Amino acid sequence: MKFQKDGKIYVRFPQGLLLPKYIKQKPLEHSKIENLNAEVLCQVQNCKNPKKYKDPKSKLFYCSVECYKNLNSN
Fold first, then answer.
1. What residue numbers bound the domain in which 36 lies?
2. In the 3-class helix/strand/coil scheme, how is the chain assigned residue by residue?
3. How many domains does the chain contain in total?
């Protein structure tokens, strides 16, 4: 699985997969693994729903049309 965080690109392989020696492998700490799997929430103020969409202008996550309108009204 490929994902981006803090401007860096990461690739996560299935546990136990052996990679060639020239690829540096660093096992993630357990707390970091939990954090990667954490559910991303809507970023509109006072909303705690899971995110469904990403605003192309602000790059913020939102969950509904109502939240999208609130996001773009500011």
1. 2-73
2. CEEEECCEEEECCCCCCCCCCCCCCCCCCHHHHHHHCCCCECCCCCCCCECCEECCCCCCEECCHHHHHHHHHC
3. 1
Q: pLDDT tens, 58-70?
A: 889 999 999 999 8
Residue-wise pLDDT tens digits, 29-59? 555 555 555 678 999 988 999 999 999 888 8
Give the integer Cα–Cα distance in Å for 71 and 19.
43
Give dist(CA 49, CA 14) in Å, integer.
29
Asked whether the whole model's pTM tops 0.70, one would answer no
Pairing of strands 2-5, 8-11: antiparallel
